[in-house]
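job 3f2a | input accepted
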Amino acid sequence: MKKIYILLFTLFASLGVQAQNAGSFDPTFGDNGVVLTPIGNDFSMSYGMALQADGKILLGGEARIGTYKFALTRYNVDGSLDMDFGYKGIVNTSLGESDFGSAVVVQDDGRIILAGRSFNGSSYQARVLRYTSIGEMDPTFGANGVAALNMMNNVEQAVIQEDGKIVVGGYSDDNFALARLNSNGTLDTSFGDGGYVITVMEDDGGQACQSYVKGIDIQTDGKIVAAGFMYSYYTYYDVVVARYTADGQLDAGFALNGTLKANLGGLADFATSVKIQDDGKIVVGGHKEFAIITGVPEYDAAILRLDSDGNYDDTFGTDGVAFYRLTEQATYVDDIVIQDDGKIVFTGQIVDYLASAYDIYACRINSDGTLDTAFGNEGHIVMDPFNTDVNANSILLQEDGNILISGYSTSREDVYNFMVLRLLGEEQVEIPAVEVTFDNVQATTLDATFTPNDICESYYFVIMTVAEMQQWSQMVGSPAGAIKMFGIHETGIYTHNYTQLTPNTGYYVYTVSLGFDGFESPYDSTYVHTTVLGGPGEATATIDLSEITPTSVRMIVTPNPETAEFHDGLMTREYFDEIGEEAAIEYFQNDGMPHYQTDNWVWIDLQSNTVYKAIATCKNAVGEWGPATIKEFTTLVVSVDNIKVSSLLAFPNPSQGIFEITGDNIAGSNIKIIDINGRIVFEALIKGQSDTIDIRHCNSGMYIIELEKDGKLSHAKFVKN
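job 3f2a | predicted structure (721 res):
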């Protein structure tokens, strides 16, 4: 199974392994990390993004198809459009003369909320739509899937409470506005005034000001934090953060009577996103205008952190505020997200107005507000994937820590498309690896296909149970050593057919991969389980005896389809009569050498002119022994027996096909390796008192080692895995 290991690249730079820094495009997503989706004819923009529990990605926005419509797309985890959603991954909904989706959230049951606004010919009104998990309008929500919030002009952000109620934030007649819906799309009248909360912000002179909610989040205690901006006659545009109780009242315990107004420098300041940390601290993202050049706005990114009471957190930035100048002109913040380790990632647009350059960026800061220099280029990355105008509107974290950014981009002049891209959350090093896949998995056989990655020159592989690997690892000194000693060495894509496996047994195919520069990866493993053999009926077998000589016999045992395993062997009639039939059968049942397929075996080293009992006993799939099969035969009479001339030893036995042969006075002997069908698969002359034999080209199974010297024979058995 191919793995990407998270390591420090500096440890491996000299070894030639491939590294991708945190903040780099994820090459496994879309087209080298980016997906562009055209909807309609020439204009589609994504503003909101959500992640489903299964990792699929939802984008919401607007698309011009005649008129502007609500637009929703869903992507698989690899960035491909989900063809099971809507029409080929896309859903368009028209409610008014012009529609605009700005926020997407997913309920626990998989239903999808898309919120925004609709133009009725004279004014914009807020709308909340709900779709089923396959992209159809949900008739159980609101009126035929639509909830009308006529007291609000727009929804900028939506969140779902733990009880399933939906909170939206935006504005109403240029005032801070929230609304809460029940799970069926009706207004929650226990919230604010009939389901709405509209707050008129006042400047320092006590005059009412225009104000707009851009982001909302919900605390664990149910309180709602909203962030945005207001217009002040005295200080131009200022950041505004307000907190509301669960029933929609301004929380007097937060900042000044529930509201914090932040003038970051005397010019235009905006808050666009808010997120609540696990420790209850509140992080607000936005931008601050730092200079005025005629016709050229100049902004720095601004991140504020407040404690749970709405006071500036002096452990962050400078007195709770940090600014980031990522370009000489304008850096806009559109959305922020907080990692589990407390680091903050934000995104938006970088603009060089004089050069007409519109790019997007991602920036990551540590929990104290300093730039995370391990991310991108000393803390940030600027992106223009299509060398066109691009804008980022939403950012999310996947469970694996990778970063999703959505928005829109032009693919050619004046044609806008939905866009989503994925960045690596951590530095990743790709090391030599081989992917293992299985096919034709049966009770005793399977095919394993090995596919190395681009930086894998060769690899070793072996199949073993966990117990076998533990045994051989202890003997050799390490799992990797056992894999290389007993395994097969291959290059390129290769398929191996394994035979004589144990039914209903879990195996691991263990691999060790080597790079072109000799770098050896840590060993890897992929699990496979063989199928069950046999059935619940009576398990029996037939025995065929042939090729009887003074010292050998061919015994073929064929089990019936009900047999899950069987045991067989020979016993002299003399010993059989001595211990009795029941004990003889139990002897083979407990010999620890089960068979699963037809056993075609030549028994050697028998006594001449002797009566033998051939015995086969079978067990079915539920563990019941069937009636044993017993056949009798007599070996032939000879005047001179073949006499063994040496004591043979083959080790390791079993092995993958390479083993040492040793014995007394074997130099000058002729060695033959014979398979169960009597075919000679290997023949050579032994030159010393030991030699190395290689039959890796042969199938797995039992083999006879026959050594001949001066007309005398010696035999031994060998098992090839």
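job 3f2a | The radius of gyration is 38 Å.
job 3f2a | closed
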